[in-house]
What we know:
Rossmann fold, Glutamyl-tRNA Synthetase, domain 2, 4 domains, 4-stranded mixed β-sheet, alpha/beta, elongated
Amino acid sequence: MDDNRRLAELLFPHIQKTAQQYLTDVYPPRKLPEGAMVTRFAPSPTGFLHIGGVFTALVCERLAHQSGGVCFLRIEDTDKKREQEDGVAGIIRGLDAFGVRFDEGVQQNGGEAGAYGPYTQSRRAEIYQSFCKDLVEKGLAYPCFCTEEELAAIRAEQEQQKVLPGYHGAFARCRGLSLAEIEEKIRSGAPYVVRLRSPGKPGGRVKLRDAIRGEIEMDENIVDIVLLKRDGIPTYHFAHVVDDTLMRTTHVVRGEEWVPSAPIHLQLFYALGLKAPKYVHVSPVMKEEDGSRRKLSKRKDPEASVEYFVREGYPADAVVEYLLTLLNSNFEDWRRQNKTADCRDFPFAVKKMSQSGALFDLLKLDSVSAAVISRMQAAQVLEQALAWAAQYDKALHKALSENREYALGIFSIDRGGAKPRKDIAKWSDVRTYVSYFYDNLGEWQGETAENVAPADRAAILRAYLAVMDAGDDKDTWFEKIREVAQKTGFCPDVKQYKADPAGYKGHVGDVSTVIRTAITGRKNTPDLHAIMALLGQEKCAARVNKALEALENGR
């Protein structure tokens, strides 16, 4: 037995299974159709789920499912010091809220599904140690006993000499320790990490082919990076290489901040004798501020957290649809041609992703979300609004649920057709949208037709009260408004008014606005005839009388 094998047994006496056994026996190749992609979303539970995480997870999910492959959720929880309580559950809840679901991996209940687990890195320690033992046997890894103070001294020396920082070359003090020296240190109880004996050379170059950016050339890694920390848990670099190999990941989708680490990862695949997956480095979600762009910040921007979108009440499909507009510039053209199709039918393509970063625009999200809601059936709008209100607006939930048929009637007005209204962009807009149908939601806006003189407004309301019937069919209803217009000096026909504006006080549209504001408190609403039919004669008459009384009293 040579020294490398003796060292491997010294460091890992408890490891019996070899790396090769894991590769062939425990995690065999997946049986998938040719061209099927296997992707993973692999967050760390160290904070809330960022909208950029949903963005990246959506890329993973689309690539896998469009190709007939598998998308799984892996939790990278090796940084226990920064782990947040409920971090894993919060991530899964956030992704589930936006319809991003996985075929395998960690589940909401804390369990796991799939044959390639454990999908939680802290439960895979022996697997990493098996692969690390393999590297030690090959002479490509060694224990390092340097203390934090010694490492700080190395950094200070490198800074003074203005050389590449890191544990490499002459600065790698433990690289040349003999087996006897190592045995002595271990017997004395000295703590250690295990480092890669980097095969990289100063000045060496490595090429990475990225699915978005094409070929990238970078300096080869020469640093003896840490593979296993003192507690036997791996670093991200080492765990990623082992996990993505065993879980048979074909495409690693991750943020562009990992591009500089790619030389390390490619070197680890090479050292282990493994084939590297394809890389898809996604640009960050950006925000425009003072004429320049910056990354969406967890600290500065409330919309960085998925909780913001849940709290505001954006439908999951709307957020996904908006993210697809950021991911592929041709999505909006596709949507115009496929107005009623599920957004997940869109043929997403990595090659059409931007290299410069997507600009997140809440106004554009509102526009997309309003269009999504406008395509929903009234019953679907009611159910989703109720589900949101149950958690975030108890008074609204009470109002809508007390008479569901009435509420359904509200959402049915002007729904459907070639040009549906887009008044609701998110469920938090619903209270304002429906409030004039209820007397107890406290949202009366009190708008008036300012272009009509108060005396004329009063005359219109008096004339309309005399003929008003909320049960009229639409033709009868409108004919009555035309008659009121003519009786009060307003033109009953808009085209006729435009031909002779000086001959009238206004036109029938102005008359409608006076009646509309009296009944709803707003100048802009859905179909007034349908609103009146739903409110009923008694309520409509009471509101017109109240508006008339205010005018007569000079209010």
